[in-house]
Design brief:
The chain is an alpha+beta fold. The chain is built from 24 helices and 33 strands. Helix 3 (102-115) packs across helix 5, helix 11 crosses helix 12 (409-419) and helix 18 runs parallel beside helix 19. It starts with a strand and ends with a strand. Bound molecules: FE2/S2 (inorganic) cluster (2 copies). One FE2/S2 (inorganic) cluster binds at residues 37-40, 42-48, 58, 60.
Length: 899
């Protein structure tokens, strides 16, 4: 059908499908990229916002035909003056992280400010309620909109910081482009002759595939190629640590989860590809799925994955004699804690674009967290040498660990190879949730003892994690959970065992915190129980046991430098005492998180500085930008060393140089990438100091590489245990109001050195936002291995109006092994949050909660998404049929004894 509308002041007349959404037409037919697809057709993330006849509408939920006769405004059509003010406000407030949500929010802000030039913060938060941001925690977005309001009223606002030395709040690289939606993500890239692709996923968590019939689909006009397992020329199985994940499941094999790929279709347009995919007939013989990790480990259980027994890993830490120490302890508490499966919900779903090059090589554009791992796995999948595949990172719209594993890179590459044309393969939100690994649900059973003075004597813990259908990095997550089982405390006797098990649930792998969050929920709960048992104040018992220089971490590593935990405890003391004195319910928790993978893994930092003829310097690194601000921080290291302006540096990530650093994981990119940048920058500085102007150095390449290979494996029999390079530390305080709602969080973090205080603060605020959702409202419930809902609201991620005040206190205890003393801050921000909330809730209503999310609590009920989440489930804390049994959210009696 033909429709006509005015787009950004220009008349349009288009032929569209009757069922096409306005978003699809704007993006695919009009070339508008400020409207993003975060959840189409749900209409629940706000990324696709457009103004239709002056009213804000989510364009993914609006049929294009309904736009006939309307005037449509997108950010592209906003006046140049307003665009400049918008970009300036978001950059100055550090309101942009991954940026995927920002164009929609910026347009909403324009609409709001056109009507209310001086809105309150509450009004701003309400106005952006339909918009989801997974990165920022909203505070700095509200700051940006408040700045924009001031600028539109003619008031002066601060300029974005352009000064890039270490310690300065340099504005994020490309902040303006992100804010305005002009910086493309993979799904925004196009090429002449581009084909659009989609995948066919298994509807069963476990079944035998009897046949895959593609004939009818192949006959659909516009379909160019359908690929199945039979088309894979190389190794069909890939994985980061175990090659146990097939890019396609073949006929005759079993599907192992509802994210398994059976076929992929490339067509002239996405609608045709999806229609053809719906015609592919896969015949299954369903089999009973293995849904409980405990069942998975029982003798006789079906083997979930043909390439590995059901016990994926066992991690053991034993120091001293925990049994004897517990028997001799003045007080012992015990209990079982249960955490839930969590969806990352980065706003940008997975997408890859593969393009055959004239010389026969393949160019891949990836949003992955390790493009060199992408290259290795894609090359093996295609059966070609690695140098036949080039990969360029397109900075991701969020990742949080969920883009470490391959998603659709291999299928896009294969279709490009088979068709000889560029292919873009993007997942829908539902497909994304089904396919990528989640945060592990873990059952944690603890016994913890202390002496009469409240000093810890022993920790005995057993952890069992559900790793789902594929290994991903699940074994490492449970290893990390084991290593953090004692939290940030000095414990002389340790007996910890952590097991990861395969099931037919969605795979679980890396997610911000990487096992530390689950362990902290349990150990911090034990600290609260011991405080009650000993009569000590919860702050005091933590102070008495807090790790200091010279103490041993859970793994036995003696901490020699940069242990700022007690500084963080002191930093929150005033707020903690004042809130308690005011009669508020208050919870407190400490946190520790490794910086660097460690555990015997050799880690790398690699950088190349390439001087260009135009006086700029390209800064190549092997680590990924996914919203955390890594590239900005790396530029600051280069500025600090060379003295050149920040604008000189152009950060890039691709496989042009051999800069394989592995995954951007474990809070290590700043630590190791930063050291490599410093090394390269020192070489450039030497030439500058020798009197060479930068222009005369055009074409020179300065290399910086560092290798860190002095960590030891868990349980290694070595004279000196050093499981990790360094650690971040934190203390968080959660304060409730008189109705039991979270009113304020005070987060004090030892970051070593705040290289960029604005970005550092933003990382912690965003983490606390994620941590509050983890504590109260978030869960990915599954029934028979299938998520029960793909609706964003049902996942429980907090909206702007739900957010309390978050006060961030940056503590600097410099790490000698870190660049200018810095350590990683990407993960630790939410490690103490859930236990701090649990402590506050117990102070409020006397109920000690042992399972997440604490959806029965007044704090959860006060959240707008908390209400929706319960409505979707039918009942608070409901256990869904077929899902993993979750212990009651009510109190599990903690057993204690005094001797
Ligand atoms: S893509 Fe339209 S609201 Fe999410
Ligand atoms: S900055 Fe909002 S989703 Fe990433």
């Amino acid at each position: 059908m033909e429709i006509a509308f005015t787009l950004n002041g220009t008349p349009q007349r288009l032929v569209v499908r009757p069922d096409a959404s306005l978003l699809e037409v704007l993006r695919e037919q009009c070339g508008i990229t400020s409207v993003k697809d975060g959840c189409a057709p749900q209409g629940q993330c706000g990324c696709c916002l457009a103004l239709i006849d002056g009213s804000p509408k989510v364009s993914c939920a609006m049929p294009a035909r309904a736009a006939h006769g309307t005037a449509i405004l997108t950010l592209e059509g906003v006046s140049a003056v307003e665009r400049a003010l918008t970009a300036r406000a978001f950059a100055a407030a550090a309101g942009v992280q991954c940026g995927f949500c920002i164009p929609g929010i910026a347009l909403r802000a324009k609409w709001l400010l056109d009507r209310r030039p001086s809105p309150t913060r509450v009004e701003i938060a309400r106005a952006i309620d339909v918009h989801l941001c997974r990165c920022t925690g909203y505070t700095q977005i509200l700051d940006a909109i408040a700045l924009l309001a001031a600028a539109r009223r003619g008031e002066p606002i601060p300029a974005p910081c352009a000064e890039g030395r270490v310690g300065r709040p340099l504005a994020r690289v490309e902040a303006a482009e992100y804010a305005l939606g002009t910086r493309p993500y993979v799904a925004d890239l196009s090429r002449p002759g581009l084909l659009h692709a989609c995948v066919v996923l298994s509807p069963h968590a476990r079944a035998t595939v009897l046949a895959i019939e593609t004939t009818a689909a192949a006959r659909v006009p516009g379909v160019v190629r359908i690929a199945t397992a039979a088309d894979v020329p190389g190794s069909r199985w890939y994985g980061l640590l175990h090659d146990d994940w097939p890019g396609f499941v073949a006929a005759g094999e079993e599907v192992r989860c509802v994210g398994d790929v059976l076929a992929a279709v490339a067509a002239e347009d996405l609608h045709t590809a999806r229609h053809a995919a719906s015609l592919i007939r896969v015949e299954y013989e369903p089999l009973p799925p293995v849904l409980d990790p405990a069942d998975s480990l029982r003798p006789g259980a079906p083997q979930v994955n043909p390439r590995h027994p059901n016990r994926l890993s066992t991690s053991v830490i034993r120091r001293g004699d925990a049994a004897a120490a517990l028997a001799a302890s003045a007080h012992v508490v015990s209990g079982t804690w249960q955490t839930q499966r969590i969806e990352h919900l980065y706003l940008e779903p997975e997408c890859a674009l593969a393009e055959p090059l004239p010389d026969g090589r393949l160019q891949l554009y990836s949003q992955g967290q390790g493009i060199f791992d992408d290259r290795r796995q894609v090359a093996a999948f295609l059966g070609v040498p690695e140098d036949r595949v080039l990969v360029e990172l397109v900075p991701a719209g969020g990742a949080f660990g969920g883009k470490e594993d391959m998603s659709v890179q291999a299928q896009a590459a294969l279709l490009a190879r088979l068709t000889g044309r560029p292919v873009r393969l993007a997942l829908s939100r539902e497909e994304s949730i089904r396919l990528h690994p989640k945060r592990h649900p873990i059952t944690l059973t603890y016994e913890v003892g202390c002496d009469a003075d409240g000093r810890l004597t022993a920790v005995r813990a057993r952890l069992l994690g559900d790793s789902g259908a594929y290994a991903s990095v699940g074994g490492k997550v449970l290893e990390r959970a084991a290593g953090h089982a004692c939290g940030a405390y000095r414990v002389p006797n340790v007996d910890v065992e952590a097991v990861a098990a395969y099931t037919n649930n969605p795979p679980c792998g890396a997610m911000r915190g990487f096992g530390a969050n689950q362990a902290h929920f349990a150990i911090e709960g034990c600290m609260d129980l011991l405080a009650a048992r000993t009569g000590l104040d919860p702050w005091e018992i933590r102070w008495r046991n807090a790790l200091e220089v010279g103490d041993a971490f859970c793994t036995g590593q003696v901490l020699e430098t940069s242990v700022g935990l007690k500084k963080t405890l002191l930093a929150v003391r005033e707020a903690y005492d004042a809130a308690r004195a005011a009669g508020r319910a208050v919870g407190i928790a400490c946190g520790i998180k490794n910086s660097g993978i460690g555990n015997g893994v050799t880690e790398w930092g690699k950088c190349r500085l390439v001087v260009a003829a135009d006086g700029t310097v390209s800064l190549y690194t092997g680590y990924t930008e996914m919203g955390q601000g890594l590239l900005t921080v790396l530029v600051q290291f280069a500025v600090e060393i060379t003295g050149l302006p920040a604008a000189t540096f152009r950060p890039r990530v691709d496989t042009r140089f051999a800069l394989d650093c592995g995954q951007t994981t474990g809070s290590r990119a700043t630590l190791f990438g930063g050291r490599a940048v410093i090394a390269a920058a020192q070489a450039l500085r030497a030439d500058l100091d020798a009197g060479h102007p930068l222009a005369a150095l055009a074409g020179r390449v300065y290399a910086g590489e560092i290798a860190v290979n002095d960590t030891t494996a868990l349980g290694a029999d070595v004279p000196k245990v050093k499981t990790h390079t360094t650690f971040g530390f934190a203390t968080q305080v959660c304060i409730l109001d008189d109705r039991g709602r979270v009113d304020r969080v005070v987060a004090a973090h030892d970051v070593g050195r705040a290289v960029n205080p604005a970005l550092c603060t933003g990382q912690i605020r965003g983490s606390v936002h994620m941590g509050l959702g983890y504590a109260l409202t978030e869960a990915l419930e599954c029934r028979n291995g299938m998520p029960v809902s793909f609706k964003l609201r049902d996942l429980g991620v907090l909206r702007a109006r739900d957010m309390p005040e978050i006060e961030v206190i940056l503590v600097e205890d410099p790490e000698p092994e870190g660049p200018f003393g810095a350590k990683g801050v990407g993960e630790i921000g939410l490690v103490p949050t859930a236990p701090a909330v649990a402590g506050a809730l117990e102070a409020y209503d006397g109920v000690r909660r042992y399972s997440l999310p604490m959806s029965d609590s007044p704090a959860a009920r006060a959240m707008s998404v908390g209400r929706r989440h319960r409505a979707a489930d039918g009942a608070p804390g409901a256990v869904l049929p077929g899902s993993r049994p979750v212990p009651s959210a009510g109190p599990v009696p903690a057993t204690g004894s005094s001797s």
